[in-house]
Amino acid sequence: MENADSSQALLSFFGLRRQPFAATVDPVYFYATREHKECLFRLWNSIDEHDGVAVVLGHYGTGKTTLLRKVLTAMRAKPDRYTVAVIGSPVPSWTSFSLLEGIVTQFGLKPETRSFEAYMEALNRYLLKHHTRINTLIIDDAQNLNKRGQLELLRLVQNLETPQRKLLNLVCFSQMEWLTVLRAAPDFAQRVHMSYTLGPLDLAETRGMIDYRLRQAGAAGALAPVFDDASVKTIHAYAQGSPRETVTVCRNALLLAAQMRTRQLGQTVILHTIEKTTLPDAERRSRVSEALEDSPPVSAPDMLPEPATGHGASRTRAQSVLQHRTNDQLLNAEDTRRSIVKQEP
After folding, report:
1. How far apart are CA 6 and CA 334, in angstroms?
2. Are 208 and 24 in contact (CB under 8 A)?
3. 34-198 to CATH, choices 3.90.550.10, 3.10.150.10, 2.60.40.10, 3.40.50.300
């Protein structure tokens, strides 16, 4: 397998049924950390109790959309209990009426008159008719809703109720920057009954997620790819606990390992993957360099003279050591790969 360019060739080499680190959000790969489990517990409690507005916050790649898909899949599996509408990615320039149109459309309604009053009345009638169900509106990328009129519309929609309960739950998944918008709209923010902020994965959770995805993809036996402890530590140092970035590094590393005909994804493979397939970032490369402290020392030819002291000098030396070590280790691995290929019939 001189060039493992095809997806099928990669899967065959590692004995996998599917790509374990696909870029798409697939519920089968949902790895529930302690925070994800707690968030789901609180979210379901808020939904089932008709509490009103729930907000899930987190930086890019912390698993918000995966949680959304998990909740949505469970709701759609019980249509007699739940009615759900989803606004996938609202347009920042939407007027309040445009947002209302989107909501009404997602609930499958078609008011005869195109007016704010007619749309609100149609939504209210629908919710009253289905008051025995748990009606929920889910908004992903809620940080795009940054206008006062948009939040006022959500407040009005969520205020639809009977004397016993709210007729509509509102669940918003958002980036952290939405906090600034919420603080500027206290009439809406005060109606948030549940909020949860997702943090990054720790080192053990990074290992757990990688192993879980491999198992879900069918990894087993001698063909299975192996991420050793040093490689996981390096991945975590680079991704800083971001599930999305962890998956990206692992996907690219798996391709490189297949090209090198090795199932051992050690630090060599990870370092080269970071060096060649990620955007240049001095701070991140510095963190990766620090993660190499527990690795075997750099060979004598790669040792560099000590530069002038200072924070910038230390960072420069760390980046240089990272680059030299990566290149040296990769050359050795490539020599081994070519030797194996030549010996094959």
Report:
1. 20
2. no
3. 3.40.50.300
Q: Give CA–CA dist 59/39, Å, rounded.
A: 15
Residue that the structure tokens 């909020």 belong to = 195
Residues of the chain with pLDDT under 70: 1-6, 293-345
Write down the domain spans for the chain: 7-26+201-343, 34-198
Kindly state the DSSP code that residue 175 receives in the 8-state scheme: -
Nearest to 271 by CA among 285, 251, 261: 285
What the block records as the tokens of 82 is: 């739940």
Gyration radius from the chain CA atoms: 25
| Strands ordered across the beta sheet of 82-87 | 82-87, 134-139, 169-174, 53-58, 192-198
Coil, strand or helix at 194:
strand
Task: Indicate the SS3 state at residue 304.
Answer: coil
Tell me: the pLDDT tens digits for 104-123?
Answer: 999 999 998 999 999 999 99
Judge whether 252 and 195 are in contact, CB under 8 Å.
Answer: no
Interior angle at CA 259, CA 221 and CA 29, nearest 5: 50
Helix-helix angle 229-239:282-291, to 10 degrees: 150
Which among 95, 193, 107, 102 has a CA at the least distance from the CA of 151? 95
Paired residues of 135 in beta bridges: 83
For 237, list phi and psi in degrees, rounded to 5.
-65, -40
State the virtual CA torsion across 10, 12, 16, 17 in degrees, nearest 10. Answer: 110
Task: For residue 290, give every residue at least 6 positions away whose Cβ sits within 8 Å of its Cβ, in sequence order, or none.
Answer: 237, 318
Q: Which amino acid is at 94?
A: W
Residue 41, judged by CB atoms within 10 A of its CB (0-12, 13-18, 19+), counts as exposed
307-343 per-position pLDDT tens digit: 334 444 444 444 455 555 555 555 555 555 455 445 5
In angstroms, the CA 191 to CA 119 distance is 23
Sequence-ordered alpha helix ranges (H) in the chain: 7-14, 34-48, 64-76, 96-106, 116-129, 148-158, 178-183, 186-189, 203-216, 229-239, 243-260, 267-277, 282-291, 311-343
